[in-house]
Structures are given as C-alpha cells and as structure tokens.
Amino acid sequence: QLVVALSLVLTIAVLEMVPWHRHAIVATKVGGAADTPCARILAMPASLGLAVGYSWNAVLSYPSKEAKDKTNALLFKMMIQIAYYFVVTALITTAWCYWNRHVKNRKEKQTERDIQRELEAISPGSAADRQDPSISGLEDVKSIG
C-alpha cells in the first residue's frame, strides 16, 4: 500500500512540474482546437486526487487499525480513532502548508523572471543596470502586481 501511495504522489508531482502537462490541462479547460484526445490523455493524472487520498488513508490508518484490534473496550477504540484523526490532520495540514509555500515561491520567482525579461527587452541599459532592481524599475513593477 505504501508503494502505491508513494508512486501515485510522485507521478502527480512530476507531472505537475512539466510544462506539457499544464498545457494539456489548460487546453482541456479552454476547449476549442487545442482540446484534443491527446491533451485529455495527458491531463488524466491530474484527476487522481481521490486515489491518492484513499491510498494514503490505507497506509496511515494501518497502525490505528492494529491498535483497535488489540482492545475490546469501545472507549479505547474511540480514543485511538480520535488520536489518529488529530495526528493525520496535523500531518496533512503541515504538508499542505509546505507545498503551498513551495508553489507560491515558485510562482513569484517565475513572475520575477518574466518581469526581468520584459525589462531587458525594453531597457537599452547595460547589464549591470538591469541587475539592480532600483535602477531597472523592478521594485515599482513588483509593488503594482
């Protein structure tokens, strides 16, 4: 079960990083000529969220199930389930926060690179001038966006 969960997560993570997968998702959402059968096939792994959740639940609930099988008292079974809920919720929330921060930083860096490219195309100044944000106007552009 752990192998399945890890392979699904790694597959989706790798696909989210490659540009053709993102282009396929956009093409299927927009429709038109870009919405081809190939684009739909390339976008399919993005819909594996429920499968990933189910497989991780099977992996993470294993210790809880084992502990509940060893006791007969219903109160202890409930306490084990509550503890499992809090531990898994904390793990999921922490992982989500780290992933969200990673995506946000990645988008900010991409935006900065795009702005720098636009400024390089517009500005006839030297390379040293373009590297200094106060000279190139990058700070002004960042504050607007």
What does it look like?
The protein is an all-alpha fold. The chain has helices at 2-17, 19-30, 37-43, 49-60, 62-69, 74-122, 127-131, 133-136, 138-144. α2 packs across α3 (37-43).
Task: Itemize the secondary structure elements and their pairings.
Layout: H1 2-17, H2 19-30, H3 37-43, H4 49-60, H5 62-69, H6 74-122, H7 127-131, H8 133-136, H9 138-144
Helix pairs in contact: 1-4, 2-3, 5-6
Keywords:
single chain; mainly alpha; 9 helices; elongated
Largest sheet: none
Q: How much is the radius of gyration in Å?
A: 23 Å
Could you name the ranges where pLDDT drops below 50 across 5 or more consecutive residues? none
Please state the structural category. mainly alpha
The helix content is over 70%
Using DSSP, what is the number of strands? Answer: 0
How would you summarize this macromolecular structure in one to three sentences?
This protein has about 140 residues and is mainly α. It has helices at about 1-15, 20-30, 35-45, 50-60, 60-70, 75-120, 125-130, 135, 140-145.
